[in-house]
Structures are given as C-alpha cells and as structure tokens.
C-alpha cells in the first residue's frame, strides 16, 4: 500500500512537472 502511494505521488508530480515545463502540449496540458 505504502509503495503504491509513493509511486502514485511520484507519478503525479512527474505529470505536473511535464504540464508546467511543456504547457504548449494539448495532451499534457489541455488547459
């Protein structure tokens, strides 16, 4: 459970960073 939470949190942070550094990509940042 703990490992799954850590992996999920890391994945969320990675997606967030991608959305921040690549805001022009409609797939990563639909806004």
UniProtKB/TrEMBL annotation:
The keyword ATP-binding does not apply. This is Uncharacterized protein. Pfam families: PSII (PF00421). It is found in: Membrane. Keywords: Chlorophyll, Chromophore, Membrane, Photosynthesis, Photosystem II, Plastid, Transmembrane, Transmembrane helix. It is a multi-pass membrane protein. The keyword Membrane applies. It comes from Gossypium trilobum. GO terms for molecular function: chlorophyll binding. InterPro entries: PS_antenna-like (IPR000932), PS_II_antenna-like_sf (IPR036001). One of its GO terms (biological process) is photosynthetic electron transport chain. GO terms for cellular component: photosystem II.
